Amino acid sequence: MKKTVKTRKKRSEKNAALNELWHIISQDKDPDALFSHALNMLSKFLGKIEAAIFVWAPWESVLRSQKVIRSNILQDGDEVIVITRESPLWGLCSGITDIVIERENEASICVALRTEGDFLGMLRITRLAGNKFSRINLSQVRLFCAELSITMNNLKVFLQNEKHVRQLRASFEISSNIVKSLHLNELLKLVVKSIVSHMGFDRVRLYLVDRKKQILKGEVSYDLRGSIQSLEKEEFPLKPRVHPLVDHILGDGNNFVNRIFHDVVVFVPLQVKDIVVGVLVVDNILSQQRITLEETQTTQSFAGQIAMAVENARLFEKIEELSITDSLTGLFVLRHFKERLETEVYRCKRYKTSIALFVIDIDDFKPINDTYGHPFGDLVLQSVTQSIKSILRQTDFACRYGGDEFMVCLSNIKKEDAIHLGLRLLETIRMAKPVPEAGSLDLSVSIGVAMFPESSEDIEDVLKKADQALYYSKEKGKGQISSWWDMKESKDKE
Predict the structure, then answer these.
(1) CB atoms within 10 A of CB 218
(2) Number of C-alpha atoms within 13 angstroms, CB side, residue 246?
């Protein structure tokens, strides 16, 4: 009798301790802590065991071990069990049974972790001493798994709610960032950084459609390491079977969202009404973390805003470009040319370099207009513009100075190199045929060149001297280049 009372008391104390442990475990806010505490708790009342908690991945039909305990030592799990209909564990996954006992020695069992009919995973326990599981042990394990399943489900709901709140916050903050810039390059960088930062994807890539060139062009990529990269070398013609992204753009935009590679890569269209303006590619290739349907839907929710922001930025840049460029030639207007020139002068002074300024005038342009008409005159201006652009280096720039006059800034250049480029320009223009039907039209220009700071340390004075050199070219017979220093030397001799 005394022994029975003592046993009951011991069992009651043990149950109280277990209840207290479950209360502590139920406060865990991440799966790793929950599984660690649960396995430690299991080893307290079963003694020396090897136990592992597996989580069910239904999209792959596999059980993945999360935590393992062996002789009170915890480790991260790395075991993956593929489940098929022929698998001994099929009954657990399909709901046919809740426990599978190894029949040879009955020292190893697998118990389903299930709530409200949903299969969450499995607990596998092996008694290291080789002892069989008694009825009491089995009852304890079943109770343990029932409690663990409830706690896992509660944690899952908690994490889903927390994730949903994060996604709503992310959506709001991303939407706020989208409207912060009207400049396209800056906007695209803000977008990819915001998505990675707030959504937690491994990487985000952004591609835009260029309808004029009929290509899908890579723009920018950003990843969790904080690495931002240009994708400008990635270009795909808008033709079928060239690239999966292009195939989707050419297909039905309404069914465009595509989840591939076990849902670790998602393509999301950027659409304005029914027109696809680009593609957002989010992936978890590095972490292999499945991108959930909720995450995809959240990304979709602000994809339309991104598309609209891209179109607005393009429109803004077009308007901005129109305000600084000549509509016929596409070269800078004089006002913006001088603004750029001020910056170039500052750079020139800082790095002790030189600038060459060309003033260019089309020879006999009025007779060309009178003979062939103004539309032909426009073609001549555009032809000369193309010739000018052909000699410009990446740091050079040009403007339409007046009706048939142009101005060019050649940065970081020596006198002899500037003259060489001028001679090349003369030859290019002579060879040009603006309109083949015009027959033997001899097109030529006159060029005047001056240097900063060699010709003058006042940039406005350099412009005047280049203009004087231009008229010296006209006086000498047109179709040639004259430098201010040669003109000065010649006039000094006179």
Answers:
(1) 21
(2) 17
Q: pLDDT tens, 27-70?
A: 666 888 889 988 988 888 788 889 999 999 888 899 999 999 98
Flag whether the pTM goes above 0.85: no
Residue 332 DSSP symbol: B
- Rounded (10°) angle between helices 459-475 and 484-493: 60
For residues 298-325, one letter each, b for 16 or more C-beta atoms within 10 angstroms of the residue's C-beta and e for the rest, the string is: bbbebbebbbbbbbbbeeeeeeeeeeeb
Residue-wise pLDDT tens digits, 62-117:
999 999 998 888 999 999 999 999 998 999 999 999 999 876 666 789 999 998 88
DSSP-derived secondary structure letter, 409? E
Q: What secondary structure does DSSP assign to 147-182, as a single string?
A: HHHHHHHHHHHHHHHHHHHHHHHHHHHHHHHHTT--
Tell me whether residue 426 is exposed, middle or buried, using C-beta atoms within 10 angstroms of its C-beta: 0 to 12, 13 to 18, 19 or more.
buried
Cα–Cα distance for residue pair 166/125, rounded to 1 Å: 37
Alpha-carbon gap, residue 487 to 395, rounded angstroms: 28
Q: Which residues of 189-208 are buried (b: 16+ CB within 10 A; e: fewer)?
A: bbbbbbbbbbbbbbbbbbbb
Phi, psi of 132 (to 5 degrees): -75, 160
Structure tokens at 484: 């201010």
Cα–Cα distance list, 124 to 4, 25, 55, 109, 312 (Å): 32, 19, 11, 6, 58
Alpha carbons 328 and 379: distance in angstroms, whole number: 9
- DSSP three-state, residue 144: helix
Q: Residue 283 and residue 261: Cα distance in Å, rounded? A: 10
Extract the residue ranges of the chain whose pLDDT is less than 70: 1-29, 103-106, 130, 164-168, 170-172, 174-182, 251-262, 317, 319-322, 435-440, 492, 494
Sorted by sequence, the CB contacts under 8 Å of residue 94 that are 6+ apart come out as 119
d(CA 41, CA 140): 12
Measured CA to CA, the distance from residue 235 to residue 295 in angstroms comes to 28
Contact yes or no for 109/125 (Cβ under 8 A): yes
What domains, with CATH codes, occur in the chain? Answer: 2-159 (3.30.450.40), 179-320 (3.30.450.40), 334-493 (3.30.70.270)
